């Protein structure tokens, strides 16, 4: 097992859940941490720089990865269980019905290992892991995520429920230069999982660039399994059914959105009053995306200690926190092809709201 730190976060390779649990404690209990502390300071400076740049834009905006601290990850898991949030329910239904077919199609008669981007709790992934175990008896699984809490919970649950799975967790930002392992068996294929409609959180060109970069670390025959939330269309979901998934009656998504401000208060010494901002969710038909904003309820000024600056908000001014792009089937297939994963199969729910698409590197 190797554990190391870079500006993207802790990276754990070749280890099981215990390694991830002990990672932080081991690091800070060892002597000679000055260089590592400098790396940590660099990461904090990077966070400050990102936030400063976003708050100086017009309109103001922040990157969505800021959602996923420990509290944000737990809130998102709660969102996935809400009745309004159809995405998880429909994707799980597709995987329940077709995980075996997906694994067989991706493996092509060979052994397979699974690598998941933004694994989170890996709740739906267990369906694919169970299918892989049925296919070959044992399987390696490499979940990649920025949340230590989510990774630890995921691999503990998998170890308890699917003992044939060899879990190799990586605590890292997969958007920051990370690539797949090269030490594979000759008779083994990799299946890259990017499910949960995570592709929608990226500008389309950025999604193509990210997948193309990872494609460059893969071998011919390796696959991509992509979860795609389909755009509103005749015969599918309506705009109203889409919007309510991002603005639930219980206010969980609103709390998730405001948690960004809580994180900035904690990590950058900001003085936001989260309840001074209203949660706004709306469909942008021109850009084919859902948008989330925090709208200032009144004129206010917010001091940010780490930035040594005061940020001014007018009444009604919005802070843009997330985009979630929605695709048609043809648009999703085009994105995958441009990234080097032409589509070889796809599975949809009965209502045509969600799709899981399999692409293969040629």
In percent terms, what proportion of residues is strand?
A: 25-35%
**Fourth-tier CATH superfamily name of the domain at 86-230 and 327-360:** Vaccinia Virus protein VP39
Give the oligomeric state of the chains in this entry, treating copies of one chain as homo and distinct chains as hetero: single chain
Span from first to last CA?
32 Å
Q: Indicate the percent of residues in helices.
A: 25-40%
Task: Describe the structure in your own words.
The protein has a domain at 86-230 and 327-360: 3-Layer(aba) Sandwich (Rossmann fold). The protein has 362 residues and is α/β, with parallel strands linked by helices. The longest helix has 22 residues, at 34-55. Strand 15 (343-348) and strand 16 form a beta hairpin. It starts with a strand and ends with a strand. It is built from 10 helices and 16 strands. The model is unreliable at 1-44 (pLDDT under 50). Strands 4, 5, 6, 7, 8, 9, 15 and 16 form an 8-stranded mixed sheet that branches. Helices cover 38% and strands 25% of the residues.
Please provide a brief summary of the model:
This protein is of the alpha/beta class.
Lay out the secondary structure.
Layout (H helix, E strand, L loop, with lengths): L1 E5 L2 E5 L3 H13 L4 H22 L4 E2 L8 H10 L6 H22 L3 E7 L7 H12 L2 E7 L2 H14 L3 E3 L2 E2 L16 E7 L9 H12 L7 E7 L9 H6 L7 H17 L8 E8 L4 E8 L3 E5 L4 E5 L4 E8 L3 H10 L4 E6 L5 E7 L2
Parallel strand pairs: 3-14, 4-5, 4-8, 5-6, 5-7, 8-9
Antiparallel strand pairs: 1-2, 9-16, 10-11, 11-14, 12-13, 15-16
Helix pairs in contact: 1-6, 3-9, 4-5
């Amino acid at each position: 097992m190797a554990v190391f730190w870079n500006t993207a976060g802790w990276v754990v390779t070749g280890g099981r859940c215990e390694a991830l649990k002990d990672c932080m404690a081991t690091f800070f209990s060892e002597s000679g941490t000055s260089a590592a502390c400098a790396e940590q300071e660099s990461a904090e400076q990077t966070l400050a720089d990102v936030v400063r740049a976003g708050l100086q834009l017009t309109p103001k905006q922040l990157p969505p990865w800021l959602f996923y601290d420990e509290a944000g990850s737990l809130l998102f898991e709660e969102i996935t269980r809400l009745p309004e949030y159809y995405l998880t329910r429909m994707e799980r239904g597709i995987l329940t019905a077709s995980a075996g077919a997906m694994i067989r199609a991706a493996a092509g008669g060979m052994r397979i290992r699974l690598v998941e981007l933004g694994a989170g709790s890996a709740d739906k992934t267990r369906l694919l892991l169970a299918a892989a175990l049925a296919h070959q008896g044992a399987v390696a699984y490499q979940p990649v995520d920025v949340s230590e809490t989510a990774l630890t919970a995921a691999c503990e649950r998998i170890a308890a429920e699917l003992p044939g799975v060899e879990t190799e967790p990586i605590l890292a930002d997969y958007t920051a230069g990370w690539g797949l392992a090269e030490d594979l068996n000759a008779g083994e294929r990799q299946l890259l999982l990017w499910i949960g409609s995570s592709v929608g959180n990226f500008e389309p060109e950025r999604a193509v660039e990210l997948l193309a970069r990872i494609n460059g670390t893969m071998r011919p025959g390796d696959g991509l399994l992509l979860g795609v939330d389909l755009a509103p269309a005749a015969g599918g979901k309506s705009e109203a059914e889409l919007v309510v998934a991002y603005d639930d009656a219980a206010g969980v998504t609103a709390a998730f959105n405001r948690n960004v401000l809580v994180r900035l208060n904690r990590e950058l010494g900001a003085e936001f009053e989260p309840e001074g901002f209203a949660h706004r969710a709306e469909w942008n038909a021109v850009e084919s995306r859902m948008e989330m904003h925090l709208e200032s309820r009144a004129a206010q000024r917010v001091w940010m200690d780490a930035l040594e600056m005061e940020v001014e908000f007018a009444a009604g001014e919005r802070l843009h926190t997330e985009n979630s792009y929605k695709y048609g089937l043809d648009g999703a297939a085009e994105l995958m092809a441009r990234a080097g994963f032409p589509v070889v199969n796809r599975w949809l729910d009965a209502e045509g709201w969600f799709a899981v698409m399999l692409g293969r590197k040629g």
